[in-house]
Every structure is written in structure tokens, then in C-alpha cells.
From TrEMBL, chains A, B, C, D:
InterPro entries xrefs: Deoxyhypusine_synthase (IPR002773), Deoxyhypusine_synthase-like (IPR023496), Deoxyhypusine_synthase_sf (IPR036982), DHS-like_NAD/FAD-binding_dom (IPR029035)
NCBIfam families named among the record's database cross-references: PRK02492.1
Name of this protein: Deoxyhypusine synthase-like protein
Any one GO cellular component localisation term in the record: cytoplasm
Coiled coil: none
Listed Pfam families: DS (PF01916)
UniProt entry tagged with the keyword Transferase: yes
Transmembrane segments: none
Family per record: Belongs to the deoxyhypusine synthase family.
């Protein structure tokens, strides 16, 4: 059996879409069929979304994407004003992005581990597996503990996940986990610096949860930090109200997809007639036939009044293949040239803190 | 085009597993292959889980299951002491179960609507579609508004979703939405009466969110109700600590799967060496090959120290086909005969409220 | 490592739909959603197909179904006049059905073999794997060799696969591989006795191919047996012409699905205006989104003029779960009570042999 | 409703991998996860396969690939000595490649047609649909009829599909359906000119079948052309014997995958100890969990002694996305620089015709 060191020797490396001009490739795919044509149409919708400077772009992340080598894609979208808010599962933002921001890596697992043949051995070595990727669980525990420390440093009150993640950004700056200070760039840091709010509506459902549980355990019966998921919903709805034209770039489904779609209805509940999301793209392999939200078509979302039918496109592909093409297309077409970031975090700073 | 009344004329009816003795069928499937054998093995693991009276059974629900005619299955599991805690998406519990508890129905949609051909028309009629099922959006708005009223009636402090859902159960009793008072049975009611805690770790990501947003909007700058997802995680971890032997019956993946698996690690974070989930079943059609959690194998979860390898089974099937067979098997085998409910809600009542 | 004998110790056992009255279960599923409702509708279409005594029923088989424990389902359909012709992959008919007719078994493989962890060991033991099922390759070689002997015994001319498989049925009778003579029942035998023609349009693509190759190798430059796939197509088209009303019960996709659908067009090519298949059911997990025929919807087939839109149903399920329910429903509803077999083999005996 | 002319106005255009240097993109994907890393590994295996000049490369085609814009990829592989034999479904070679060689096109269908909403209308207009692609059925009938004419022109005896397709190539040359004569290039033509044999083991299961049925109908009781699928198997096995080192590049599964894998066993049946396929790649979205061959892993094939475990890679992607990357990588790496075509058609010309 290989040693832990041997197993954790080849780090995942994040693709740099700036290095790959896929515009001619995607242009060629526009006249093909199936996923290639769908990917090309999705790319052109993302391009339109960015050229429509009224449009606020909401990026939704589900699945294990950062561990898969897509971190830099999202960083580049943020730094180039190609995304204005992020709704994500906790794992992507905390266990994976913040984890790498702390200096840790994900590792390539050999093909023979994909289907679980070595999982008992991995358990003994404290190596966690995500399909074909390894994580050092001891490093992950440090990530959990860092969240614990950040939590302990905060005022005792309810926080939206957005507020909490902003504190994580501040932590990275303070601790020198920035490129300027010799550290790495990260989604949290880039979003912090570019005023892009990040929401994890199921925030305790990840490494952050461990830190929070430790905090709350120690504070039982005393004032403590809590995470108010309703506040997340309230805040992101404010964005829809402030910026009526919106577009969704969704990788995977799950809570982020549902949450971001729902803000149209939530605005309506607050008495503001909100337009449906004008643009919507989803990359997923989920099947529609089990009726679950993750694979449900964007047409279905239009029956709910959430997504407009005109510019929507599902792309049936695992994201590591399709996203570099779609995001890279918009980048190299310079769709964002005339675009400024919406600086949405500044709007949210006006939402009163919960007392 | 049909009228709204015509479109909403055939209600979904919930299957009653008590009426279908599938034991001989499942026994026959034990010596076949593929999904039938997997379903048979899952059924036998659920049977074992229930006979192991030390074991606390955690039911995880993702996907649109209640709208699909599975509500009564879950009610029967609760009322027959076959489940001790539930972790669910909000949609199943609020938009669908609570919605039906209020007296509303889901409706059968014709095959021609499945792929979105009529979605523009549905939008105009305020009919929402879930694949092959219709919902009257006007009724759903009443459901949202009921949550709003419940929220307004509560003390202003952070709540776990479990605490909030318990208040929804109390509301049903108070309003006579019970079989005894001529109303319908529901998951929330049965769980309320049987002391089965229900957690929705992403609670604002559903109809409940609309009511909560309305509440918080009206209370900006003043004390308000908030939903603390960290408290959810803390509470369910307490259950793992109080009852070390646990089993998971998971329908779909998503947040419920991750959340319930994670409590093993969370207990460890709190300094209690917790055993992995001893039994685990998941019914899903999600693919493993995109690396996302929903389709990740239970073997993968064992690398994380969350699920034991001995008694785990994935079943590749859409749930409406496989669950009545698996749950019905355990029911008709009387696996629960010697079992008492764990009454876990009583343990949680000892967790202090957040101040 | 276990021995070959240990690995091949638990035979696959074929489910007996006659023992499981699933009518109430399927009736309950008619008012649910997703796959359960689709399965219920498919069952009712199969029921209609059988009650429409003008209708000739064509069963299409792709995937490894016989090895999975479904052999007896198909035998029961044949012996109860519930199917009039079969179009199949070669593997189901030769490698699996004929193989079992010779007295051999398929075996249950442990879950740990499903994803290939033991394949190198299996190779050394001459054990072939189909997902979670084992086959003794030495026994399979006997099956190949038996085909070789049958081929050698035939007149040297082109055969349709249907003619060849009929000779395989005659062989089973001659060699006492029948229940009457203490052997087992099989699809080939039942079809032989009930005059149900079986077509394998890609006949050399299976164990039969090995026997045929051996024959042709020995006969190079001399008259030999050949397998004329065009004759298959000609013959089955004659059935459509002789019996205009037809229904398809398709398990899986592939060549059988395409071939059976195409006979509507082929009849047209021969100058006979043929009606589309009046009824069509397909059970499959194949995805529509790659554009391949196996997962293509039956609606798509209607654009080709092959399948009528009125009574068609796709069922998204692995077949071992759904087929016992669908076939069992029609059987226990006695849909076939008034039905006589079409005895289609007698029509085909009038097609001249190829000279 | 749009007219037929309006519906058939945007032809599918075939991607030209020579125009897109994807080497840096694929190199970047080697250190990512999931499908991107798998695609990168598959690309590197194809690269190795081509550099191993002993290796004969067998390309397997299933699914509707030519209609999807991949025709030129396969033509380029043939013309650049990157493939030595082709095993395909009939649809790709006859209905689609030969069809385009005759001067016809496939057309882009709007997204709204994908799920069957317009199929009844399409039927009336004689437009056939493949997912998101349209075909003029009147043109397809001309293709059928052309096959009929070619068949009528042949000597009356059994043909392998390879022999028949070679005659189709000769027809294209004779009729000036070549680039040199102002026509288009095609797979059949390129293969004819480069001595690359093409096998369609289920040859009658496509447009060719219609022409053959018409021929055989007119010739009933008289000598006729027949298509001997056993001869196909015999011939391709001769290639394995003549050239022991082989690699498979498989797009989709079905008959081509099974057929090409089986030649290892067939060689063994003929008394020649054949090595397993040394290299194997499959691009597919088929699921392994239904046990069918199309989605079965290449590891499973190794248990049958067909595929070596060392250099095999499944890629989970719809082919129009993954194939241009994989084939383009090998092309732009000039993996074929030192490679000459195997000219395998010349070996097969030595197999005696069937008498």
C-alpha cells in the first residue's frame, strides 16, 4: 500500500481560462448538435448577459468544483467583473476554496480509487476521497478549527452567511493569505476585494458547520454567534429589488439553484413586482426524470415565474469539461469590456445587522 | 387550452404501503441482479436497522417526494416507530407536506407537459409545474403566508429549523388540521405527535423562506425571528452523541445526505468519539461521475469516516418505484415490532434556547 | 482470494411473475408521479395491447436481461400468448438463454466486484463479469462450440437469424433440453413450441458469432452457412404486412428498438401502406440528451412515422425493477385471456429459403 | 407553423479539428478532476496508440454522430492515417455519411423541438427528427433507393457489410461524388481511398436495410444479394490475427463496442492466441448500473479477456464535446507523424468471396 505522502503527491491544478482562447472552437460548435451546440448557446447567452450592462450576474455553485480544478475560473470571473454575486454550497466555499486559501491542496487520486476499492485504507490514513480526488483530513481539521477561531472573534448575534464569509475574507487579508503577501488568490479573497457577496444558504452543512458547532457548544446558554439563513434570503432579495435585470450562471443544481431562482418570488412577496431572471444557464448531468430540482429544466422554472424562456439553456455535461469553454468564450470575446462590477456588497452593508 | 380547473382535476394520491405486501416480491429480487437485487439488499438492511433496537434511524429526504405521492409512506414510517429523525429539504416539508396538511393537493399533469411545451400557458394560469405534477400557485401563496403568520407569533430569537417545524406542528393541532378534527394526517403532524425531530438545514430555501423574509422585512432594525442553521447541526449532533448507533435511510442526496453524514465528524469535533453510521441506504439516480455529493457512493463516505462499509447499499432507481418496495418490505416483515420510537425530540428540548 | 467454486456458488434465480399479483400496487402507482406513474401507464398500455386481439406484440430485448433473472418473465409471456415475435441482441438469446438451456447458470457477484476491483483475478480464473454477475467462461466456450456443431449440421446457404434460432430450438428438443425430458425451459424452446419467431439482427455479435466464425474458417472457399441480416429485415416486415396492428414492448434500446420500429417504413418501401406501431412501451435508463437511439423518446419515433403518439410510454427504470411490475400487471389482469398466439412462425415458413 | 423550407434552413456544419489546437487546453485538464482529467487521459492514450506504430487502431461508432457535426473529424482521422478500421452502426455510415455524400444535409432544429412538442407537425411535413436535428425524409428515401440500385448492380451472393460498403465507395467515385469532382468528402469515400475497411455488423438495421429488402423482395425465390454478418466477424478477426497489437477508440457503445472487443476471443476460437486490446478508450454517457454493455466499464471487459487494464479510459461525456478535444489533441501533437495506414482492406481482399 502506498504511503500517505505518496498518495498525496500530485496536486490538482486549476485551469486558467485566460490562457485558452476557445472562441473559434465554440463558434464551430454552434452549428453542431447536442451538448456542443448547447454549450455554444450557453456561451453566447453568458456573453449577452455580460454585454447587457444593466444585468446583475449571479453565479451558482453546487458539486465539488473547487477541488476539481475550477477555482481559478471563478477567481478570474470575479476579478474581471464577470460575476456580481455567488450562491454556493458550503463545501465549495469553505472546505475547498478557503482550505486552499490557507495553503492546502487537493490531490489527484489514481483511477483505481474512483469506485471505492481503497476506501478502507484511505480511512486509516485519514485521507478523504471525492471521486478521483484526495484530501488530507488532518489539513481539513485545521480548516474547521480556523472557522472556529473566526467565529469566536465575532460579536454574538445572528449573521447571514454572507456576513460571515466576508469575515473570512477579512481574516485572509489580516493573516496575509493574499497574493500580495505571498499567499494564494482565492474566491473568498477576490470576492472580498471586489465587493461580490457570497451566500451559502446551507452554511452549516460544511466544514464551517464544525467550527460553528464547536463555538455554540462552548457557549451553551450564553450569547453566541448564529447563522441566519432567512437573512441570506432577505439580503439576496434586496439585490434583485435594487437591480431588476438579472442573469444566472449555474454550475450544478441543489440549494444554490433553488435559492437564486426563488428571489424573483421573494421580491414579489415584499411587494415589489420583479421580472423573471432574464438569462439563465445551467451546466449539469442531473436527470430530469426523477422530478428533483437539480435536473429540472429551466422551462419548468418558467412555469413558476422564475426564469424567462427567451434566453435559457441547459448544458448536459460534467462541469470541468463545459465550464472552461463557456466561461473562456465570454472572457476571450471581451464580453465584459464595458462592464463594471455591481459592487453589490455595498448595498448589503446597508441592511441593518440583526439585533 | 384547458382551463385551470381542468388542469387541476386529478389529485396525486399517496401510496399506502400497508396495503401491499411486497415481501415475496423483494425476496425473489434477492437472487436477481442490478437494481432489483440492490433494492432487495437495501430492504434487508432497513429490516436489520429496525431490528437493531439500539439503532436510531435518520430519514433523509431530497427531491420532490411528497408531491409525488410518497407522503403517506413517510407518515406510516413515523407512526410505526420506523424512523427517529428526519433531515429534509424545505420543499418536501413546507411547500409539499405542510401545504397538503393545510388541505391543498398536488395534481397529475398530462405527459405532454413533462418537457415544458405548456409552461408559458401554465405561467399565465398561475400553475407551477414539477415535472409531471401541477401545483396551484395561489394555494402555495397561502402556504407562504401561513408561515409568515406563524413566524409573527413567535418569540424573537434564533430558532433551529427543528424548533420552527415543531411550531408548525403545534399550529396544525391548534387549527384542527388533524385527522381527529377531520383534517389530514401529515409528516409534520405525525412527527410532532411522535416526538420525531425534523431538520431542514437550508430552511429558508423553500416556501418557509418567503414567510420568513416577509417577517424580517417588517422587523428591520428590530428584534426578529431568525433561523440558525448552526443550531440545527448542533442539535442533530447531540442525537448522535446520545444514541451512538445510527442508520441512514436516504432518498436522494443534496444537503440532507451531507448533513446527516457529517454528524459523525461533528461529534468528534465536540470531543466524543462517535462510531460511523452503522447502516446506510441511499435511493438515487444521480450519477457518481460528476463528483458531486448526491451521487457519490457510500463507500466514498467511508473514506471520510462517516459511513461503515459493512451494511451500506446504493439503489439506482427513481424513488417512487423503489421506496414503496423497500419501506413496504420492512413494514410487512414487522421489523419494527420490538421497536419503540426514540422520542428524540425530548432530548432536544433540553438544548437551551438561543439567547 | 476466493476459489472459482466459491465465487460461482450462488446462482441467479429467475423471478416468477405468476407468483406476485402486483395489480393493486400498480393501480396505486397510477396516481403518483415520475417513474411509478409511467410504469403504471406502461402496464395499462401493455394490458390494452393484449386485449386488442388484432394487435401483434413484438418484444424487444437489449441489455443483459436473462443473466439478470428475467428469463422466466419472457418464457411466461411466450407460453401465455402475450408476445408474438421477439427481436433481441444475440447475447440475451444465445450467450444467456441458450446457455442456461444447456444447463449452465449465471452467478451472483458480491458488491465489491461491481466496479472492477477484482477483474484481474477473475481473468485468471476464467470468470467473466457482467456488472454484479459472474459467468464461467469455460461453460460459455461449450455454448460457443454447441453453436459450431449446429452450424455444421445445416445445409450450406444463407439463413435469417430467425431460421437459425429455430434450428437451435430443434436442437434443444432433440437433445432433451426440455422440461419434459428433465431439462429446463428456455425462451428459445418456448418460442419454438409456440411458433414465436426470434430475430437477432446482429446475430454474429455474440456467442453465436464464435461458432459461425469457426464454421466459416473451416469452410473457406467452399459452400458454407451464412447469416443474412437483410433476410431478417425482410421477414419481420412480412409480419407487419400480414398483421397491420402492432405493439412494441421494448426493454432497452439498441438494434432491437431500431429494427422493430423500422418495419413500418420497410413495409412502405415494399409498397404496402403500413400503419405506425399502435402501442409502444420502452423501459430504459438511457439518456435522451446524447441524441442516440437507445434513449430517444417514442415521440421522436413518431416524427419518423414509426410509432403512434396516442399509446406510447417511456419508463425510466432499470428493467429488473420495472419489468416484473409491468408484465406481472398484465398477466394478473388476465389481459391475455381472449388472446391466441399469432403463430407468426407459420407465416415465415412460407418465405422461400435463399438459394 | 413554419414551412418545411423554413425548418430545414440551417445545415449542421462539421467541426474541423485541424483548425483548433486544443493541446494546451487538454494539457491543463490533465491536472483537474472528473471528465476533464479522463478526457485528457483518453487523449494521451490515443496519442500513445498512434505512436505505437505496431498498433492497429479500430474506431467504433454508435449513436447519431455524423448528423451531429462529427463527420469531418472521422474523415480527418482516416485521411491522416489515424484509424485503420471502422466498426459502426448502419445509421452513421449509410443514413448519415452516405446521405451527406450524396449531397444532402442535416439541419439544426430549434430547442423547442427537442422534447417532441412538434413531432406531429414534423410527421406531416415528412421531417424526421434526431433530438435537436432535422432530416428531410424525402431525401432519405433517395438514399434508400440508391442503396437499392447499388444492390441490384451486384453479383448475387453473400457479402460482408465491409464488401458492400466498399461498393458504396466505388459508387461515389463512379458518380463523381468526390471532392475532386466537385462533390463532398465522406467517411465512405476516404475509407475507400485509404483502404480502411468499414464494418456495420447490423447492416440491415438502417437505411441500407430498406434498399436490401426491396432487392430481396423483387428476387424472392431467385438468387439474390445477401449480407452475411458472420463474414463480418470472420473478416475483422483476420485483422486481429494479422496485426496482433490493437487499440480501440470507441464513441458510444452498442454493437460496435461488443463486436470489436469480441475479436480477441474469436481469434482464440480460431486457434490463434491473441493478445487483449492493448489500448481502449470509450466516450459515453451510458450508465454502468443497468448492466448493459454500452455503459459497462472497460475493466469489466478485461474480466472477459478482451481489453488490457493498463491503458484504458472511459470518458463520461456526450461525444460532440469530448471527441473534438481528444481527436484534436492527438492530431495537433502529431502523434501520427511516423505512422502509415495499415491498409487493412488489402488483407481482406485475400479472404475468398462466399460461394
Amino acid at each position: 500500500m502506498p504511503t500517505k505522502k505518496e498518495l498525496l503527491s500530485q496536486p490538482i491544478q486549476h485551469i486558467d481560462i485566460k490562457q485558452h482562447n476557445v472562441v473559434p472552437l465554440i463558434d464551430a460548435m454552434q452549428s453542431m448538435a447536442y451538448s456542443s451546440r448547447d454549450a455554444a448557446r450557453a456561451a453566447s447567452i453568458y456573453d449577452m448577459m455580460l454585454r447587457d450592462t444593466d444585468c446583475g450576474v449571479i453565479l451558482c455553485l453546487a458539486g465539488s468544483l473547487i477541488s476539481a480544478g475550477l477555482q481559478k475560473v471563478f477567481i478570474d470571473l470575479i476579478r474581471n467583473n464577470m460575476v456580481d454575486a455567488i450562491v454556493s454550497t458550503g463545501a465549495n466555499i469553505v472546505d475547498q476554496d478557503f482550505f486552499e486559501a490557507l495553503g492546502f491542496n487537493h490531490y489527484i487520486a489514481g483511477d483505481e480509487y474512483k469506485y471505492g476499492a481503497g476506501d478502507a485504507d484511505l480511512r486509516e490514513l485519514m485521507i478523504d476521497r471525492i471521486y478521483d480526488t484526495f484530501i488530507d483530513e488532518e489539513e481539513l481539521r485545521i480548516c474547521d478549527e480556523t472557522i472556529h477561531q473566526i467565529t469566536n472573534s465575532l460579536e454574538h448575534r445572528p449573521y447571514s452567511s454572507r456576513e460571515f464569509i466576508r469575515e473570512m475574507g477579512a481574516y485572509l487579508v489580516k493573516e496575509g493569505k493574499t497574493p500580495a503577501a505571498g499567499g494564494r488568490d482565492s474566491i473568498i479573497l477576490a470576492a472580498y476585494e471586489k465587493n461580490v457577496p457570497i451566500f451559502c444558504p446551507a452554511f452549516s452543512d460544511c466544514s464551517a458547520g464544525f467550527g460553528l458547532v464547536a463555538h455554540q457548544h462552548a457557549r451553551q446558554g450564553k450569547p453566541m454567534v448564529s447563522i441566519d439563513s432567512a437573512k441570506d434570503f432577505y439580503e439576496i432579495t434586496q439585490l434583485k429589488i435594487a437591480n431588476p435585470t438579472t442573469g444566472l450562471l449555474m454550475i450544478g443544481g441543489g440549494v444554490p439553484k433553488n435559492f437564486a431562482q426563488d428571489i424573483v418570488v421573494a421580491a414579489d412577496v415584499l411587494g415589489v413586482e420583479a421580472s423573471m431572471h432574464k438569462y439563465a444557464i445551467q451546466i449539469t448531468v442531473a436527470d430530469a426524470r426523477d422530478g428533483a430540482l437539480s435536473g429540472s429544466t429551466l422551462k419548468e422554472a418558467s412555469s413558476w415565474g422564475k426564469v424567462d424562456l427567451t434566453y435559457e439553456q441547459m448544458v448536459f455535461s460534467e462541469a470541468t469539461l463545459a465550464l472552461p469553454l463557456i466561461a473562456g468564450y465570454a472572457f476571450h470575446k471581451k464580453a465584459h469590456a464595458a462592464r463594471k462590477g455591481k459592487q453589490w456588497a455595498t448595498i448589503l452593508n446597508q441592511v441593518p445587522v440583526t439585533v
